[in-house]
Structures are given as structure tokens and as C-alpha cells.
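This protein record is not my work; I was only asked to verify it. Where you disagree with what is written, explain briefly why. This is what I was given:
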Amino acid sequence: MCTKIKIPALTLSRLFIRTKPKVSTVLCERTYNNNVRVFCPHKGYKQQRKDTGAKTYLLGISTLVAASFGDFSKEDEWEKHIDDEMKQEELKKRIGMCTMHLHQAEPHLAKPHFQEAFELLKDDLSRKRGTPIPNLKIVYLTDQLGNIALQLECYREAIDLYMATINGFALNGIERSNRTVTELFLKIGQIYAILGEFKLAEMTFLHCVGVTTLELSKNDNPKNPRVITLAGLAYEGLGKLYLSMNLPENALNMYHHALQFAETIFHPHDPQIPVLLNDLATVYEALNDYDQALETVEKAISAAKIGNPSAIPSIMCNKATILLFKGELKTARQLYEELVETCKRLYDSETLREVRANMKILEEKERAMSNNPYS
């Protein structure tokens, strides 16, 4: 008895493609005697952006004014500023080393640097009362380290880092409905799905759907392309999740929404379109609607030839698998054998492993059929 298990691969690449905004010096202020202002990040006063001249202004505050606050001195503030600068530089250094080793396919060398950087952020990961508010530069570096944790498959650490990033944004006055925050929740949802924590993943994706749907319901015309993209990714995440949970009916609905958003915002030849069509074909296969699955996978192949040629072997493998479970064993075998040669030529080891695993299922079915020719 063979069991069919097919879960589309989770891809996070679209979430990583984000230009890091230029962050100016962010300091907090409160007014003293109408005209004198003291900037104090770790006191948690109202956040405002100031140019770099604010640093010089801070050092020029008189001892009399600083002393009048009792628990605050310019020396304390300067020490905090120096600590932040040193922390930022060390984080940048460790993240740079991690990135270099990952580009060189040396994750074992990247991991020690990641652990050093992770240790630097331990106070931000387990905040206590009185923990200084992180400045935005450190918050963005925390997000970058979360991406590295994800590449190193340190999933729990990635969740902690992304949650610390969300909290850091909140402490700096950035709302949870902000689009950057929604991207972080999408990443967290996808990690929960990888870990098999399906309920947490579902709650996280539904939060993203709610936030993006609310924004799209406003009377802005035209709709913001980034919000449409995030909504599509949230529905795609739910589709993959429900398929993993063996709920193909729910997955079908989610993939239809994801495709609708993708076709609205992306170019007709965008590489994501054939990926979504291929996943949708898998859903139809799970519903035993093989004719619709084959029709959809053919659309995926046509779209991939123009927009995403590198995905063709994987999509062809899916087509062969649909034929396999439809009962067209000879056609499936022929397609699998062609794919073995193609994958070897393209050095596509991942698809090759999938092809060989499915060929074992094919061989079992062929043996069962030869033993019982009337079945």
C-alpha cells in the first residue's frame, strides 16, 4: 500500500526582496522650561526623527539642565549612545560574515558568527521592565539576523528574532498594521508551517489576511501594489498550509484567491504565476480531479516556458505524478525517465530526488498491477 504525500515547497524569496530604508538618528524628547529639550532614547519619551546634529546638541546640554531631571545625566546618555554604536558595529560585522559564508555555501562557518550576533541581542529577545528601547538601526539589523537564521534553518531563533523586530518597531511607534510588520508575520507563519505547528501558522496567516483585506477595502484608487502582493502571499501561505493539513477543499479556495491577486499585480510572465498554477494542480490532484489537475499543470508549463524556465523540471515532475495516480503508468514512467536525464544535465538534485522517490511508488503500482491484471 503506497501513501501519496505531496506538499509544495515553501518559498520566502519574495519577502526578502525589500530595500532597507535609510534610517536617520532617532532620539526621544521632552520639553523643559519651554525651550530646552533633552534627548533620551532609554527613557521612552515621544519618538521624533532628528538629523545628526542632534548628537552635538545632546553633548552641549548644560550640567544644570541635566541634573534637574534627577535620574538622568548627559554622561548616562552618552554611554548609552556609545553602547548602541558598538553593538551596531558588532552586529554588522557578524551579519556580514554570515552573509559571506552563506554565499560561499559554508553554513557551518556562518553559524558561529550567527550565534555571536544572537547573543548580542539577548536583552531585546527577552525584554524586561527597564530594558532600554532599541533604536531603529538595531531593529533592522535584528530583522536581517532573522533572515540569516532562516537560511541556517535555525527556525526557533528566527521566530524570536522576527518577534523582537516587531516589538522593536512597536516601541519606536510603528503600528502592527504597517506593511513591513505584515511581511514579518508572513515569515513567522511560514516557519510555523515548516515546524508543523499548523494552528499557530493558520492564526498568523489569517492575521495577515485580515490586515491586508482591511487596507484593500479602503476607497484608495488605485490599490497599493505592495498590499496586493502581501495579500496574495498570505492566501498562498494558507493554501500550502491547508494542503499540508490534508484539507484540499480549503486549499483550493486559498489558491484561487492567491492567483487572483497575483494576476492583478504581477506581469503575465512573472515567475510566481507558474509556481501558483503548479501548486493549484497539486490541490486538484489531492481532490482526485485528475483531468482538472492535468489541465492546470499544462497551463503552469506554458507559463514557465516564458517566465520561469528553471521551474519546468519540477512542474513536469508534478505532471508525471498526476498521471501516476490517475493510472496512466506507462506515460508516467516515460516522463519520469526523461526527467532523470534532464535533472542530471541541469544538476537539479532536488527534483531528481523527488523523481526517484515517485518512481518507487510507480514500481509498486506496476508490481501490484502485474500480480492482479484484472484490478
Observations:
- The radius of gyration is 26 Å.
- The chain has 17 helices and three strands.
- Confidence is low (pLDDT under 50) at residues 1-74.
